[in-house]
């Protein structure tokens, strides 16, 4: 990877953030698979570190939270002791928090869909904001204790319970149909007009379209959880700082006031260099 030119690095990262798999990136760029994975690890770690430092003390008003499913190695029902011993860990969930106004993703966490990860995630969210917020989550019970642990009573919090109807005629991979949503005030006085998870769910779709590892019914799924986490960090660096939002006409980071220009892929790659600037610009 040390002998890889900047042009090649940019070509590799550009392909990955546009939804190419590792093997298709090999074919497009001519770079070896192992070199691509090492570059992904290096850039992904740098992206995670940069955003951890840059996205702090953010003034937001409404945050939406959701979690998106994927898997590493194999699906959970196929995990055996033998597979677990060699690192095939099964289902993995990515928690995501998005600002409904600026579309900035403030925080994410790759882990399990349980109260422990939910608490760690929301405590991280709480540490990045500078004011009281309105928070909306889905109806999963793990959020009840997690929100209380992270925010106490200093929050306007509501859940959005979705009502589903399954159809016996549906095929194996057909999702249940959502036939309604029931809002529930939990803490404080949330504004009923803004009890919604629409933005974060749309952002989940963007993830599935731009991270090949999240694409359903393919063999492009992650084989190692570390590479999975690096891909998520790279995606959010590109989403927050380098991708112009169609409605905002600027990047989410610019809209939130933590960046002054649209980042290039070259700047993202440069985060791995010791002399790179470590502040949003």
Condensed summary:
With 281 residues, the chain is of the alpha/beta class.
Could you describe the 3D structure shown?
Helix 1 (6-17) packs antiparallel against helix 2 (22-29) and helix 3 (33-54) crosses helix 8. The radius of gyration is 19 Å and the shape is globular. The chain is α/β, with parallel strands linked by helices. The longest helix has 22 residues, at 33-54. The relative contact order is 0.17. The chain is built from ten helices and six strands; from the N terminus they run αααβαββαβαββαααα. It has helices at residues 6-17, 22-29, 33-54, 81-85, 115-126, 142-151, 198-210, 225-242, 252-255, 265-270, and strands spanning 62-72, 90-99, 105-111, 134-138, 156-165, 177-187. A six-stranded mixed beta sheet has the order 3-2-1-4-5-6, sandwiched between helices. The two termini are 27 Å apart. The model is unreliable at 276-280 (pLDDT under 50).
- Rounded to the nearest angstrom, the radius of gyration is 19 Å
Strand content: 15-25%
Shape by Cα distribution: globular
Total number of beta strands = 6
Structural class: alpha/beta
The main β sheet shows up as: 6 strands, mixed
The strand order across the widest sheet is 3-2-1-4-5-6
**Mean pLDDT, as a whole number?**
92
Tell me roughly what share of residues is in helical segments: 25-40%
């Amino acid at each position: 990877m040390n002998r890889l030119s900047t042009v090649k690095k940019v070509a590799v990262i550009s392909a990955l953030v546009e939804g190419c798999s590792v093997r298709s990136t090999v074919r497009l760029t001519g770079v070896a698979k192992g070199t691509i994975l090492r570059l992904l690890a290096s850039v992904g770690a740098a992206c995670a570190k940069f955003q951890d430092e840059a996205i702090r003390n953010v003034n937001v008003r409404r945050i939406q939270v959701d979690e998106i499913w994927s898997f590493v190695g194999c699906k959970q029902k196929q995990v055996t002791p033998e597979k677990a011993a060699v690192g095939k860990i099964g289902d993995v969930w990515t928690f995501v928090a998005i600002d409904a106004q600026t579309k900035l993703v403030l925080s994410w966490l790759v882990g399990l869909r349980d109260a422990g990860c939910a608490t760690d995630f929301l405590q991280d969210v709480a540490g990045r904001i500078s004011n009281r917020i309105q928070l909306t989550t889905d109806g999963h019970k793990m959020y009840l204790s997690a929100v209380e642990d992270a925010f106490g009573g200093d929050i306007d919090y509501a859940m959005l319970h979705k009502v589903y109807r399954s159809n016996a005629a549906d095929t194996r991979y057909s999702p249940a149909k959502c036939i309604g949503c029931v809002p529930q005030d939990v803490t404080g006085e949330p504004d009923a007009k803004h009890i919604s998870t629409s933005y974060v769910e749309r952002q989940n779709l963007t993830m599935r379209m731009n991270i090949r590892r999240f694409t359903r019914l393919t063999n492009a799924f992650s084989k190692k959880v570390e590479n999975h986490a690096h891909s998520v960090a790279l995606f959010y660096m590109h989403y927050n700082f380098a991708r112009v939002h169609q409605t905002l006409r600027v990047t989410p980071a610019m809209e939130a006031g933590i960046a002054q220009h649209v980042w290039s892929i070259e700047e993202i790659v440069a985060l791995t260099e010791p002399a790179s600037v470590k502040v949003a610009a």
